[in-house]
Amino acid sequence: MFRIQIDEAMCNCCGLCAEVCPNDVLIKRRDGCSPAIGDRECVGCENCVVVCETGALKIIKEDDEVSVGC
Questions:
Q1: Given a cut of 90, is residue 20 above it in pLDDT?
Q2: CA dihedral 43, 24, 8, 12 (to 10 degrees)
Q3: Which of 7, 51, 52, 55 is the most buried (most CB within 10 A)?
């Protein structure tokens, strides 16, 4: 599982990240600057990171929780 982290202070509001997101995780806002993160799951493709001219985006891999039975 992956999570997108946005540094809003670094975002230049270009919207390229939302345009290249294959899963529509990032959504360009109508009334704000940085993209909104939608309810779809990030697949970790890093398309958004590659096109981000300011380096405002990071993809974080979340460790799967392992449950141990008795």
A1: yes
A2: 120
A3: 52
